[in-house]
């Protein structure tokens, strides 16, 4: 896992791995300095012991200091892009989806203003524009966007389907 690009905020790869604390190698070839590879650290130095217990099976192990782990040894981030195209959503009129818009419909707004009803937890991190707020922690089944149908006034939530906990890092609206 390394740092594949210097402009990570502006990339939209489907999946991108980013090493948080890259280091320069202890032993390096001559061309390492020629190509200025120290400007782009893409690894972590570790001591690995290769042990042959019986003479046939090779086992490997890494000696890891607890404080090194606490300081961020081998910490990395996986960036995933999740694309929500309104043309592909349920209720879109073909060939164009001009009847669907990000946001909440009137029926949903009336339900949320009802004092007798408990508010939907999605309203905490999805704004009135139907787009999630940056920095929110989401888990499997949480709503990550809302769109409304102009014809029926219905609001539909797009759910997060990933198994691991995620954070909203960047939201881009194209149209």
Could you please describe the fold and organization of this structure?
The strands form four sheets. A three-stranded antiparallel beta sheet has the order 5-7-8. A two-stranded antiparallel sheet has the order 1-4. A two-stranded antiparallel sheet has the order 2-3. It folds into two domains: 8-79, no CATH class; 85-167, OB fold (Dihydrolipoamide Acetyltransferase, E2P), CATH 2.40.50.150. It is of the alpha+beta class. The two termini are 34 Å apart. The protein is elongated. The chain has helices at residues 30-34, 66-70, 106-113, and strands at 15-19, 48-52, 58-62, 76-80, 100-102, 137-138, 143-149, 155-159, 166-167.
Q: How would you briefly describe this protein structure?
A:
With about 180 residues, this protein is of the alpha+beta class. The protein has two domains: about 10-80, no CATH class; about 85-165, Beta Barrel (OB fold (Dihydrolipoamide Acetyltransferase, E2P)), CATH 2.40.50.
Mean model confidence by pLDDT: 80
Euclidean distance between termini CA atoms: 34 Å
- State the low-pLDDT regions, or none: none
Structural class: alpha+beta
